[in-house]
C-alpha cells in the first residue's frame, strides 16, 4: 500500500531563463502572406473544400480550425492570424504544445529548443518564464472561471511589457478579435507541467471550460467546416466527443464538411479497412474524415506539408467577404 502513495516532489526542480536559449523558430524567420514564397498545393477535392469554406462563412456558419504545434513550428502563425482577422476562422482549438510555442514567440521572439541535447542533462523544458507565466495565467484563470485560451490571452493583454511580439501570437489575436481559442491538455505532456508552481487542478479547470466552448461551436457546425492540421490524437478525439455531445443534445450537426491535413498518406481514405491495417488506428481518418460525415456532409484527407497546404488554402479563401 505504501508504494501506491509514492510521488516525486517537483518543488526542487531547477529552472533556467529562456533568454539565452537557441531557438529554431524566430519572429525573424516567420513566413508572411503575400511576401513568402511557397509551393502551391494541389489535390482532388482541395478546390471544393475552399468553396465550402467560403460558402460556410457567407452563410454565417462556423469554420473551426484544429491544429497541432507544428503549424507554429512551421512558421505559419501569420497565415492563421490573417484568416482570424479576415473572419474566415471562427474558432481555434489546439493542444498544449501549440499554446506553449505560441506563448514563447510572444514573449521571447523564438521557440522550439534543441531537444536532443537538452534531454541529456535534464534541462529540457525547464524554462522559468514559460513555466511560471503560463501557470500564473492559468491559476488566475481558474479562479475567475476563464478557459485555458482566454486566461492566457488576458494575461498577455494585461502585461504588454512582457510580450513585445503579441501581434504574431495566435491566442492573443483570438482574444483581441473575440474568437474562441481553446486548448485541450493531456496532463504530463507539456513542459509547463514540470514547473514547480504547476497546479494540475487549475489546468484541468480551465480545460474543462474550453471543452464546453468547443462543444458550443461544434453544435453550430451544420453547414460549417471543421479543419484539422496535424493533430493526430487530441484534435480528433476532442472533436468526436464534442460532436457526440452536440447530437445527444439534439443539435442538427449532420451537414458538415471536414478535412484533415497531414504528412500521412492514407491512400483511399474513404474505403473500409480492417484491424490488420495500421491506418485503421490513425484517429483522424475515423474521427474527422469518415465517421462524422457518414450521415451527411463530406470529409477529406489531404497529404502534404503545412508549409504548402496552409498558404495555398489561405490564397483561395482569404478574399472571401464575410
Report on this structure.
This protein has 322 residues and is an alpha/beta fold. Helix 7 (148-158) packs across helix 8. It is built from twelve helices and eight strands. It starts with 24 loop residues before the first strand and ends in a 5-residue tail after the last helix. Helix content is 41%, strand content 11%. It has helices spanning 46-58, 70-73, 77-85, 96-108, 115-118, 128-144, 148-158, 170-176, 200-219, 234-248, 283-290, 306-317; strands at 25-26, 63-67, 91-95, 110-111, 181-184, 225-229, 257-262, 298-303.
Write out key terms for the chains shown:
single chain, 322 residues, globular, 8 strands, two-stranded antiparallel sheet, six-stranded parallel β-sheet, alpha/beta
Short overview:
With 322 residues, the protein is of the alpha/beta class. The protein has 12 helices and 8 strands. 46% of the residues are buried.
Could you state the order of secondary-structure elements as H and E?
A: EHEHHEHEHHHHEHEHEHEH
Q: How would you characterize the largest beta sheet?
A: 6 strands, parallel
Which outline best applies?
globular
- What Rg, in angstroms, do the CA atoms define? 20 Å
Helix content: 40-55%
User: Structural class from helices and strands?
Assistant: alpha/beta
Residue stretches low in confidence (pLDDT < 50, at least 5 long) are none
First-last Cα distance: 61 Å
Give average pLDDT, whole number: 95
- The number of helical segments is 12
Q: Report the count of strand segments.
A: 8
Beta-strand content bin: 5-15%
Give the strand line-up of the largest sheet: 5-3-2-6-7-8
Amino acid at each position: 500500500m505504501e508504494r501506491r502513495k509514492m510521488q516525486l516532489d517537483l518543488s526542487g526542480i531547477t529552472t533556467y531563463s529562456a533568454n539565452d536559449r537557441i531557438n529554431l523558430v524566430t519572429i525573424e524567420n516567420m513566413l508572411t502572406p503575400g511576401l513568402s514564397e511557397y509551393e502551391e498545393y494541389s489535390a482532388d477535392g482541395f478546390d471544393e473544400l475552399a468553396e465550402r469554406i467560403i460558402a460556410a462563412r457567407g452563410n454565417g456558419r462556423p469554420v473551426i480550425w484544429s491544429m497541432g504545434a507544428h503549424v507554429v513550428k512551421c512558421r505559419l502563425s501569420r497565415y492563421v492570424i490573417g484568416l482570424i482577422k479576415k473572419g474566415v476562422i471562427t474558432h481555434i482549438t489546439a493542444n498544449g504544445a501549440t499554446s506553449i510555442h505560441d506563448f514563447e514567440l510572444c514573449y521571447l521572439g523564438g521557440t522550439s529548443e534543441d531537444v536532443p541535447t537538452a534531454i541529456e542533462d535534464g534541462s529540457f523544458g525547464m524554462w522559468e518564464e514559460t513555466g511560471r507565466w503560463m501557470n500564473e495565467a492559468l491559476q488566475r484563470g481558474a479562479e475567475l472561471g476563464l478557459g485555458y485560451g482566454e486566461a492566457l490571452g488576458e494575461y498577455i493583454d494585461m502585461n504588454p511589457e512582457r510580450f513585445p511580439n503579441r501581434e504574431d501570437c495566435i491566442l492573443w489575436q483570438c482574444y483581441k478579435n473575440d474568437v474562441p481559442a481553446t486548448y485541450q491538455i493531456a496532463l504530463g505532456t507539456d513542459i509547463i507541467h514540470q514547473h514547480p508552481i504547476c497546479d494540475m487542478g487549475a489546468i484541468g479547470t480551465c480545460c474543462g471550460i474550453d471543452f464546453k466552448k468547443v462543444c458550443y461551436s461544434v453544435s453550430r457546425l451544420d453547414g460549417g467546416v471543421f479543419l484539422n492540421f496535424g493533430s493526430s490524437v487530441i484534435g480528433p478525439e476532442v472533436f468526436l466527443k464534442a460532436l457526440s455531445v452536440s447530437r445527444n443534445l439534439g443539435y442538427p450537426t449532420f451537414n458538415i464538411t471536414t478535412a484533415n491535413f497531414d504528412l500521412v498518406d492514407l491512400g483511399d481514405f474513404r474505403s473500409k479497412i480492417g484491424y490488420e491495417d495500421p491506418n485503421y488506428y490513425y484517429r483522424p481518418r475515423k474521427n474527422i474524415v469518415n465517421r462524422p460525415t457518414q450521415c451527411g456532409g463530406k470529409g477529406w484527407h489531404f497529404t502534404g506539408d503545412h508549409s504548402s497546404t496552409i498558404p495555398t488554402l489561405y490564397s483561395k479563401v482569404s478574399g472571401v467577404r464575410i
